[in-house]
Amino acid sequence: MNYKRFWDGVPLPQGLEDRVLRAAEERPAPFPWKRTFRAAACALCALALVLGTVRITRSPEGGVVLSYDFALRACAADETVNGRLAFLPGEGRTEDGTTYTGCLFRLEGESIETVTLQVEAGGLYRDGAFTDLGRSLTEDYDPEARYGFCLPEGEELSAFDGTALTVAVTFSDGTERSQSYPLRQEQLLACAAAAGETYRPALTGEEGEPALCALSPESRFLLWPVEGANAVRLSQDFEDPDQDGVWTEVGFDARIETGEDGESAVVVTYHAAIDIPGESGTPILAAESGTVRETGFDAERGNYLILDHGDGLTTLYAQCREILVTEGQSVAAGDPVAEMGSTGRSTGPHLHFAVLQDGVEQPPLSYFDAGTIARLYPEG
């Protein structure tokens, strides 16, 4: 009944109910559609929310309102890390002194009428036309349109570094929504992940792809988790899954995958974290505010703790000498949560630090700002 009352009190965006009704009438069903209309409508709303095209907000009166939303998608990249959209140069070209970078993106959304795009450097173009449209354009929404960044003669991709792309849309019900995406020029490396290919910053000595990255509202940046002016350093970086097909026993840094026969399990070993060296007893800090989800000890991780930061983001701190917090405790970013040690499978004092999004290991360095990366690799 609570579920029914919730949806009964949710006003649908203009036109959504009619579209669901038409779809139900046009699609043959093996049973009367009227009895399943409410379930279909709820399922459609849930799908729209997953796709990021409908937003749930609360009205001043305390009710729940559904409204339209939009999403920015990069065309030359698969899944990206930490909400960072990587616009990888594709088949760019140069004409009349203008460089059309091949860094393409598109907009997705429900019932979008018009689109306004604006950049603070370079210009914009529509894929296939190769005409500089200037720094701002407004036009009717075309779901097939792909836009790119262009540069005048003599300028490079780094001209966009520190600027922003602003997107504003108008929906069929007259509502408007806008979002600014900070832009950053980076060298990125492809990184295998459970959801597909992701990208992480290319560091000193690594040959990465030049890319223009947009930081989305979902991007989150962490505090360096070890205290001390000289603590920003690594003894071991995050490693991609073994690409040579060498199967090993289940271990600390391993992911279980199903074999080709669909039955047997194989394990790919890799280092799903970063190791930060230091003196035993060095304070370990919460990388972001959150709640202590778990503390414990095992032969692999030694003394460890897991912090839950909300929205599916968790951080793991392992090989600790001592844990200073308890399960369920709330912590703020920068609070001491443990002391560095060498417990578990370890060869010396260090912090084994992992970042997980929805339970999947992420390249941790993609969660630190450019200043931290520059301190790690001053010659990068």
Topology:
Elements: H1 2-8, H2 16-26, H3 37-51, E1 54-58, E2 64-68, E3 70-74, E4 84-87, E5 93-95, E6 98-109, E7 112-119, E8 123-126, E9 136-140, E10 147-151, E11 164-171, E12 176-193, E13 196-201, E14 209-215, E15 254-258, E16 265-269, E17 274-277, E18 283-285, E19 290-298, E20 302-308, E21 313-323, E22 330-331, E23 336-340, E24 350-357, E25 360-362, H4 370-376
Antiparallel strand pairs: 1-2, 3-6, 4-14, 5-6, 6-10, 7-9, 7-11, 8-10, 11-12, 12-13, 12-14, 15-16, 17-24, 18-23, 19-20, 19-22, 20-21, 21-23, 21-24, 24-25
Quick summary:
With 380 residues, this protein is mostly beta strands. Helices cover 11% and strands 41% of the residues. The strands form five sheets. Strands 17, 18, 19, 20, 21, 22, 23, 24 and 25 form a nine-stranded antiparallel beta sheet that branches.
Task: List its salient traits.
380 residues; mainly beta; Glucose Permease (Domain IIA); 3 domains; nine-stranded antiparallel sheet; seven-stranded antiparallel sheet
Plain-language structure description:
The protein has 380 residues and is mostly beta strands. The chain has 3 domains: 2-68, no CATH class; 70-215, no CATH class; 273-376, Glucose Permease (Domain IIA). The protein contains 4 helices and 25 strands. The chain has helices spanning 2-8, 16-26, 37-51, 370-376, and strands at residues 54-58, 64-68, 70-74, 84-87, 93-95, 98-109, 112-119, 123-126, 136-140, 147-151, 164-171, 176-193, 196-201, 209-215, 254-258, 265-269, 274-277, 283-285, 290-298, 302-308, 313-323, 330-331, 336-340, 350-357, 360-362. Strand 24 and strand 25 (360-362) form a beta hairpin. Helix 2 crosses helix 3. The protein is elongated, with a radius of gyration of 24 Å. It starts with a helix and ends with a helix. Residues 1-7, 26-52 and 241-255 have low confidence and may be disordered.
